[in-house]
Amino acid sequence: MVDNVERLPISQVSGEGKRGVTDSVVMELPLTIVLNNREVATLPCSPISLNYLAVGFLFSEGLIASKDDIREIKVDGKGSTVRVEAKRVSPSYTPAQSKVESDIKISAAEVFALVDEFVQRSVLFKETGGVHSAALCDTKSILVFSEDIGRHNAIEKVFGECLLKDIPTVGRLLVTSGRVSSEILLKVAKRDIPLLVSKSAPTNMGVKLARDLGITLIGFARGRKMNIYANEWRVVA
Amino acid sequence: MVDNVERLPISQVSGEGKRGVTDSVVMELPLTIVLNNREVATLPCSPISLNYLAVGFLFSEGLIASKDDIREIKVDGKGSTVRVEAKRVSPSYTPAQSKVESDIKISAAEVFALVDEFVQRSVLFKETGGVHSAALCDTKSILVFSEDIGRHNAIEKVFGECLLKDIPTVGRLLVTSGRVSSEILLKVAKRDIPLLVSKSAPTNMGVKLARDLGITLIGFARGRKMNIYANEWRVVA
To answer: Is B207 in contact with A8 (Cβ distance < 8 A)?
Structure first.
């Protein structure tokens, strides 16, 4: 975890007064993503898995459509730029998102077990309290896990890794620590994922999109409780 | 709070099984900000104080420099577009940020009292768990308070209101529920605010900027505890 954390001298104030301690603070890096020599975006992020972040971001933006589009990925020495060379670049637009069709079912106990594992894996969060996590799972276990200071970035990293390693997302679950707005729903739908589980709250547009797109949306999944906002039929007793 | 919340039928799962309830879900609106007939940005946000959000955003982006630059603000009927007519538009660039100079001091007890009041005021958070809050304060009380699904938006709304109502920010405090990255620090420095208090974690770049810019940075301010990351001299016993 060396690269993700900086140890800094700080003062802690509590009922017992003030004392100097050394604390772990999560690192932030401005990452510039370059696609075929064109600067596409600069994102504040955690300086790990930058290749996954760049690819996941370009995919979510609709600029690349598959792994086959990619010729080369170069992360520069200081890690502040990722250059992606693509054979073809798609026009950046959002096509009408089609409904996610999947008969997959999951039990409440399986959701709780996955969230438990998810929390256990959030090492950087436990150390710094300053990051979001995301994970691709099947109904039994976590397949891909990622942490980042940005809730969107954490999800892009998961999807970027899936894309580069040919890990299917169809019919699987995404677990996220972050709030679920419409943008998150669209990203998940684009990867044909029928189940989205969040530790936090959804927005009303998130719920509406989940209902329209056939995605089961679970929020406030904490301990042995959760709220099911959409397509409840996939959660069985 | 009618406009900020939608009541939706959901299922709650707990140790006692599953039951149908009606739950409050925070509303999300895509707001388009238009400056002198040019579309500047579309932000997912909470549909309140949209004039403040637009003005705060344009100020943070450096596109308008003061209230005097603004001729008219029109929020369209459905609230999905704010049109700002400006007498002059500044070139969008970030000048080197100068250091915040202020001799203001605050006691730990005053910080704790402000955070208590801040939490009390977070009505929408209490109802939905899905928003961030921000507040401008003096050492004794909250002067301007705002909530939004985005942590940046909540801060833009506070600053936009200050700008339009001629409420000075110099020498005051900003309290935020959200994580403190470098972007947040730059926004606060731009308003000459010497004290930034967060309920959450900072990043290492946030801490570095706070130190360089002369801003006292307090994180994890919860209950009777807090961490002081930078310019501790402003917090007195």
So the answer is: yes
